[in-house]
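User: I've been trying to design a sequence by hand for this structure and keep getting stuck. Would you show me what you'd pick, starting by listing the structure so we're on the same page?

Assistant: Good idea, let's start from the same input. This is the structure you sent:
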């Protein structure tokens, strides 16, 4: 019997009776086990809580770092886009210079359009080496994960790698143009390279609905609407070969620029030059009007090469 119990004696400080309590060994053992289990559970909970707190802190730090990275990506992307637009602008200028001079010289290996013809490089590459799909992905990329950040960095690297290559090709092309233009000042002065009047384009070169008959007809020039009486300027050096009235053109001026170029100015309110007169680029030759077959004050402007009408936009720098 004694071996199955533990005896607990409670002895007060004064003369009160000593109390004696018997505890079964099984109960004492069970209590000890329960206490150990409780301590273990409490310890595990404390460790888990500390881990969760650490993760929350780490996640907050990562979110802040990701936000900083996104802002850096956005800044770099804007700067790259600006450089790409500059390169693309130079490319368009290169192509236009080749077009207006009808550049074709087998000796120099040159042709209209040059080595940079087209807005994208082979394989769908943009000006800086990234495809349009890749550049769109980069613009929309949140860069929240390491994989997304690596992808964004890879696309930026691709664009950065492409810019020097594109700039090098443009430099080589422009050097070709400079070499071609040396000693050709007469050709350049004789090439129409500006709008002859200020205003807005109301009708482009090409097939259109005729404003009088509503039929589809070829429009051989460009209509520039503007204030009646506003100046019309010569877009290049030339000689006046016609200055008078001609059918639906109304008051008309035709300039012969040489090298096969002629320009035509119709519906004028005033003619300020005469046949045989030599003019320089920027010379005031007439005024915008509404004469002839016209629905309102505007300038009808044509550029022809060997008598064949071409789009005047090709000759506006």
């Amino acid at each position: 019997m004694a071996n199955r119990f533990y005896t607990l004696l409670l002895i007060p400080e004064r003369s009160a009776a000593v109390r004696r309590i018997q505890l079964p060994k099984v109960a004492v053992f069970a209590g000890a086990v329960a206490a150990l289990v409780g301590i273990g559970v409490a310890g595990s909970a404390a460790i888990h809580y500390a881990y969760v707190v650490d993760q929350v802190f780490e996640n907050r730090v990562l979110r802040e770092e990701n936000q900083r990275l996104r802002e850096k990506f956005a800044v770099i992307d804007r700067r790259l886009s600006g450089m790409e637009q500059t390169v693309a602008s130079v490319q368009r200028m290169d192509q236009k210079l080749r077009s207006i001079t009808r550049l074709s010289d087998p000796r120099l290996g040159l042709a209209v359009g040059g080595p940079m013809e087209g807005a994208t490089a082979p394989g769908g590459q943009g000006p800086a080496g990234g495809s349009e799909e890749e550049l769109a992905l980069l613009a929309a990329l949140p860069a929240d994960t390491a994989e997304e950040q690596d992808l964004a960095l890879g696309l930026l690297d691709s664009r950065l790698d492409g810019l020097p290559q594109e700039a090098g090709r443009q430099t080589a092309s422009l050097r070709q143009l400079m070499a071609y233009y040396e000693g050709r000042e007469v050709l350049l002065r004789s090439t129409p390279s500006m709008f002859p009047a200020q205003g807005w384009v109301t009708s482009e070169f090409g097939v259109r609905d005729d404003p009088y008959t509503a039929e589809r007809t070829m429009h051989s020039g460009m209509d520039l609407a503007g204030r009646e009486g506003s100046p019309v300027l010569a877009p290049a050096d030339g000689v006046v070969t016609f200055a008078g009235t001609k059918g639906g053109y109304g008051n008309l001026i035709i300039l012969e620029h040489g090298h096969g170029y002629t320009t035509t100015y119709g519906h004028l309110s005033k003619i300020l030059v005469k046949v045989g007169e030599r003019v320089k680029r920027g010379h005031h030759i007439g005024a915008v009007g509404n004469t002839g077959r016209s629905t309102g004050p505007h300038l009808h402007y044509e550029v022809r090469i060997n008598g064949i009408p071409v789009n005047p936009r090709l000759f506006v720098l």
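That's my pick for every position. To get oriented when you compare it with your attempt: The chain has four helices and 15 strands. The radius of gyration is 42 Å.
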